[in-house]
# Entry
Amino acid sequence: MSAADVAATVTDPELPMLTLAELGILREVRETDDGVEVTITPTYSGCPAMEAISADLVRALHDAGYGRARVRTSLAPAWTTDWISASGRAKLAAAGIAPPGPAPARAAGPVPLVLGVREEHVACPRCGAESTERLAAFGATACRELRRCPACREPFEHVKEI
# Structure
């Protein structure tokens, strides 16, 4: 198995139903004479799981017989939820977590401040109802929010669009 194949099997500690490849944070795996270098991009710059992800990658590569493994973090370009693969989105929904919609367009330069209520359409991953309500801006992690479906009354998490 190539180093890239091994790295692609490592799962995210906060969303263990997804591999790092499905989440879109696994950017590059290079085999060199000196070992393996893996480049990852955090979902956001303060992501507390980066240390665990790095350790999991190194452990998986060592277990597969690769000697020296280094993990490098790249902040540019910044990760976006658009990098989550179709299979990753399907796995989130199957786990009862609403996958993100399209990420907001990124503007060059200052981001305009928009006041008022933002329209959000997050479908329930359990019953499919189109209209749900936010209970809390943050769920188990900063990149998720807690929502409830008025139709089936079930709470669920939603991966926020970034």
User: Anything to note?
Assistant: The radius of gyration is 18 Å. The mean pLDDT is 91. Strands lie at 26-32, 35-40, 69-73, 97-98, 133-136, 144-148, 155-159. The domain at 3-73 is CATH 3.30.300.130 (GMP Synthetase; Chain A, domain 3).
